[in-house]
Amino acid sequence: MTIAEWQGRLADHFTVKGVIGGHLSEVFELEDAVGDHLVSTFHGQSVLIDSLQSFFVETLRATYTILGKSGWPSGAANYPVVVAWYAMLFRRYRACELLFIKGYPLDGYALLRDLKDRLFLLAGVVHNMTTFPRILGITDTSIANTEEWKKQSTAARRTEESRIRQRLVGAQSNLSAEVLRELKQWEHLFHDEVHSGRLSLFQEVDSLVRGRAPGIGPTFSQESFAMYMNRADELGWLIARLLPYLQPTPGAFDTDWHTKLAVLDESFRYAVEGLSLLGKKIGEAFITLVDQKFSFRQPLSYTEADGGL
Q1: Does residue 1 lie in a domain region?
Q2: Which of 6, 22, 147, 296 shows its CA 20 to 30 Å from the CA of 155?
Q3: How does pLDDT run across 167-208, given as a tens digit for each residue?
Q4: Checking DSSP bridges between strand 15-16 and strand 19-20, what pairing results, if any?
Q5: 5 with 85, same domain?
Q6: Which helix (H) or strand (E) holds 271?
């Protein structure tokens, strides 16, 4: 079979109203409708998250401009890794938002779990609890056997991830038992959606029990939207707290940048406090996490971590 024949056979079988894959048109329309609904119904959420994303872009561009003029900072071997790490954080957060705005909030929710893990690891580096080589599983040992190196590297990375988690939200965090209990449940909800899609599945089964067929394509579930938005706000706040570390040298970002950061920080606190006002204990627990574990030395800028803390 030639490539042309392979493509032609697909076109013959799956053309609908003159378009290959034409049944997707109804899905596209629903996705656009969900996006319109979200922007109009949750305008405050759109303002907050769009402001964060725009500021993140501004921050990355400012970093690239500084590096273009001054070059890489001296004595900062891992700073290129930091820049790449932040670029990846933006890409992942943006991917979550695109899923949300098209009507796939719990799919975005699942991706937020990985973002959470990356933010915790970065916080460990900023606190000098660890280093990038450690969290990447890069060992000093020279191992000729590739498979054995991969095995040891993976084990080292997982051990370091667990150690940092224990210091931030575990037994070594010095957070109260009540706060730890709420944060543990918070993490379990991520886990439930990542593994087997339990949250999504339960919602679809509930629809069937109520006599409604699961929707094809995007969802209009207000519960799913709320779950995603709460987590996106929380992790967005952690991102904002970590952005100053991108400064290659102290004071590299101007006064206007710091003013915008302060506004964002206050805005995220206001949004998360809303959960507490609704009687959600996770709101207060998360504020405690931010105040105790995502409050960094001031003024914050890049320093080469040695993991000595």
Answers
A1: yes
A2: 296
A3: 999 999 999 999 999 999 999 989 888 877 888 888 888 778
A4: antiparallel
A5: no
A6: helix 255-277
